[in-house]
Amino acid sequence: MRLQAALGVTTLLAATTAAALTAPAASAAPGCKVDYTITNQWNTGFGATVAITNLGDSISGGWTLEWEFPGDQQVGQGWNGQFSQQANRVTVSNPPWGASLATGATVSPGFNGTFTGTNDKPATFKLNGVTCNGTTTPPTDPPPGNGARVDNPYVGAKVYVNPDWSARAAAEPGGSAIANQPTGVWMDRIAAINGTTGARGLRAHLDEAVQQAGGSPLVFQVVIYNLPGRDCSALASNGELKADELPRYKTEYIDPIAAILGDSKYADLRIVTIIEIDSLPNLITNVTPRPTAVPQCDTMKANGNYVNGVGYALAKLGAIPNVYNYVDAGHHGWLGWDDNFSASAQIMAQAARASGSTVNNVHGFIANTANYSALREPYFTINDNVNGQSVRQSKWVDWNRYTDELSYAKAFREETVRAGFPSNVGMLIDTSRNGWGGSARPTGPGPTTSVDAYVNGGRVDRRIHLGNWCNQAGAGLGERPKAAPEAGIDAYVWIKPPGESDGSSKEIANEEGKGFDRMCDPTYTGNPRNNNNMSGAKADAPLSGHWFSAQFQELLRNAYPPL
Ligand code: BGC
């Protein structure tokens, strides 16, 4: 989450080309398609991903892709494959952990390279010696705007109220003020599909949703959150699937969910899916060589299971005509720096094209899920100067381009369109806990004695640091859920159910795969991802997802707008 210098060209030049490979035996009758995407480019360097889809017989003994560069491009560091180059001829072979490629499966090796002059794409590719001339759009992909979906599913629709959360909220003193608000239904483990103690399963929710709809349009919000190696940069929401368990994610998690959502009984619901919180941005910000790197995120980048898992979820769920996929887009206090912003949109485009998906399976993006970043900072803007110093130079903003979620969400929407997503993608913003009201809320700008005094005196987000994310002390409920509040914003939503913990403040044994993250411990002095600040977390918190009454009470007290 910290500012880091953009990756320099010198780093790329220093990266070594992978060692020579031994050619695998060719499999029978391969057919294939290749999407070669230049993901970013500067004077003499570029990054590219090469999505290879096997349209022929299943390959088991290893694969090799070859192409010729039209110019003087030179491959540097590569991933998800073993790269070598002789003159302008590049060969990529399968990584040691991925020798097979089933019919219809996609692998996405990528690389950083250098060039001079122009950087034209290679014209032809060969997979195991056979030219790839498959179509670039899989036939199963619904054309954009095919009429089955509305542009903004929230317009003219009610939104599902989760009776399980509603009962817990109503049981709290003062809780009835918000107990009828819609919140997200989290499928946070395989067992959640059929239901766990105190939480009904997916079908029971959908049956209830049909009741609540009463024949009128109704949005049902479900969170898809169970990737292999989940939450690689933190421990509080680690999941049940290990880093290499992509096959289980597909067959035991996504496939059953898709089967239920696709049931014709639910065809009149507008099903909004929130796709895999925090996963893809972690592959940009929390990997080597950043100072914020975490080994588990390096693993998830190298094995491709976040990208391929998200692609699979998008393809499977996007094939259901009344499903609206929204991909998680972090928040401004994470991706609002230049070196994170475009790269995150790019990896989302890469994931949206993985595992047989296309960008048309993405209806939009969601910012601030389960986070605390303020919707609006009313008392300063990114363009303000104090004594000749920009707000961007303040310790709080720290060169970020955005001061709040609204400005970030609108800009990120445009960035995703530049990255190749349909021009009508829409944004959601999770406003469940970003209200920052109560008696400590500033009522005007800070003093102009220094840029820090100005920003710190005027900011409504009262966290110790923007990178703090666990059970933040002093937070309040944010804007109530609302359709189409601003241009480009499909809705304000409460995806994180207020009152459910972000993580335990001490270690608690459990069978949910949850770890103990010290960012949830109020005595923790931080790490590079929050620039070594105190965690700002509330004490005595239970496991993530469990009811945290004291936090619920504080959210009510500090609601903004007030209740
Ligand atoms: C937890 C999930 C929970 C969700 C909603 C996440 O932090 O890991 O188990 O369902 O929050 O409260």
Descriptive overview:
The chain has 563 residues and is of the alpha/beta class. The chain folds into two domains: 18-131, Immunoglobulin-like; 158-380 and 401-441 and 466-557, 1, 4-beta cellobiohydrolase (TIM Barrel, Alpha-Beta Barrel). It is 23% helix and 19% strand. The chain contains 13 helices and 23 strands. The strands form five sheets. Strands 11, 12, 15, 16, 17, 18, 21, 22 and 23 form a nine-stranded mixed sheet that branches. Strands 1, 2, 4, 7 and 8 form a five-stranded antiparallel sheet that branches. Strands 5-6-3-9-10 form a five-stranded antiparallel sheet, with no helix packed on it. Strand 15, helix 5 and strand 16 (270-275) form a beta-alpha-beta unit. Helix 6 (279-285) packs across helix 10.
Indicate the proportion of strand residues: 15-25%
Structural class: alpha/beta
Instruction: Using the 3D structure, state the CATH architecture of the largest domain.
Output: Alpha-Beta Barrel
Mean pLDDT: 91
Radius of gyration: 24 Å
Helix content: 10-25%
Biggest beta sheet attributes: 9 strands, mixed
How far apart are the termini?
A: 32 Å
- The CATH superfamily of the largest domain is 1, 4-beta cellobiohydrolase
Contiguous runs where pLDDT drops below 50 for at least 5 residues: 1-29, 136-146
Name the hetero compounds present.
beta-D-glucopyranose
Using the coordinates shown, work out and report the CATH topology of the largest domain: TIM Barrel
Number of structurally distinct domains:
2
Total number of β-strand segments? 23
Given this structure, which CATH class of the largest domain is correct?
Answer: Alpha Beta
The number of distinct helices, counting runs of at least 4 residues, comes to 13
Shape: globular
Pfam families: CBM_2 (PF00553), Glyco_hydro_6 (PF01341)
Family: Belongs to the glycosyl hydrolase family 6.
Enzyme class: hydrolase
Keywords: Carbohydrate metabolism, Cellulose degradation, Disulfide bond, Glycosidase, Hydrolase, Polysaccharide degradation, Signal
